[in-house]
Write a structure and sequence with these properties.
Elements: H1 2-15, H2 25-46, H3 54-66, H4 69-82, E1 89-94, H5 102-108, E2 112-118, H6 121-134, E3 139-143, E4 154-159, H7 167-176, E5 177-187, H8 190-202, E6 210-214, E7 223-229, E8 245-246
Parallel strand pairs: 1-2, 1-4, 2-3, 4-5
Antiparallel strand pairs: 5-7, 6-7, 6-8
Helix pairs in contact: 1-2, 1-3, 2-5, 2-6, 3-5
């Protein structure tokens, strides 16, 4: 049942403009199913995610992680065009936890390199074991607090972990970005985002930001990716061209 749900979700993401080549769907589906099995095996002991059953795990965590794929892939393509030949786009998942959204994104974006930054040892063990079990070559794990990670390395940093964002956390994340890098934060309701970022802008924590509406299949809740540049001015180079709605 959930295999069918996951497959249908991938096709719905494609219908919403997320670029998943048809020939890749079976490969992605196979690796995601094995990833879900790893989470289910370790979740009772490690408390990796909040999910009452497999359907909730698929929808609220796997498909929700992939809801941002179109936006993040667009920024990755823009970065790739400006990098020297042979360099990979470097993406971090900060506060990775169970590997969400980093592992589903890494499975779907094999030409980018992902670093899963996590400070808790047991979760780091889970992540290392999972990457080995999945044979995922474009992802590595870094056991660090974000404040102590080496700076100026990542073109994109994504996360679902920080709710709400504060000035100290943003400064730590900006420090890890390249000069033209961006943060891509998974967020929920538009009104809550506007309130959160009005406070951040008033405190000079952010100079510019953009809220891009995304859709998680089978989830009747508002979902957005908030894109925050390290350095203004910021121009969105076509994130909405992936079929995503950009809220004014």
């Amino acid at each position: 049942m959930t295999n069918g749900l996951l497959k249908e979700g991938l096709f719905l993401l494609r219908e919403n403009g997320v670029e998943i080549p048809g020939e890749d769907i079976n490969r992605i589906l196979d690796i995601l199913e094995r990833y879900i099995a790893e989470i289910e095996l370790f979740n009772p002991a490690y408390k990796l995610v909040g999910a009452n059953n497999r359907k909730e795990l698929v929808v609220r965590h796997i498909l929700d992680s992939l809801s941002g794929l179109g936006v993040i892939n667009r920024f990755a393509c823009s970065c790739a065009a400006s990098l020297r030949a042979g360099m990979d786009v470097a993406i971090a998942d900060a506060g990775s936890g169970a590997g969400l959204p980093g592992i589903p994104l890494a499975i779907s974006m094999p030409r980018c390199h992902f670093t899963l930054i996590e400070r808790m040892g047991r979760r780091v063990g889970f992540l290392n074991n999972t990457l080995a079990a999945l044979g995922l070559q474009n992802a590595t794990v870094e056991e660090k607090e974000i404040e102590k990670a080496a700076p100026n390395r990542f073109n994109i940093i994504t996360f679902r972990a920080f709710k709400p964002l504060d000035k100290k956390t943003l400064q730590s994340l900006f420090r890890l970005l390249t000069q033209d890098g961006v943060l891509a934060a998974y967020k929920g309701r538009k009104d809550a985002i506007e309130k959160e970022f009005a406070l951040l802008k008033a405190s000079s924590a952010v100079a510019d930001w953009e809220m891009i509406r995304v859709s998680t299949p089978f989830l009747e809740e508002e979902r957005h990716i908030v894109v925050i540049p390290r350095a203004p001015p910021f121009v969105n180079k076509g994130a909405s061209a992936c079929g995503q709605h950009v809220d004014a």
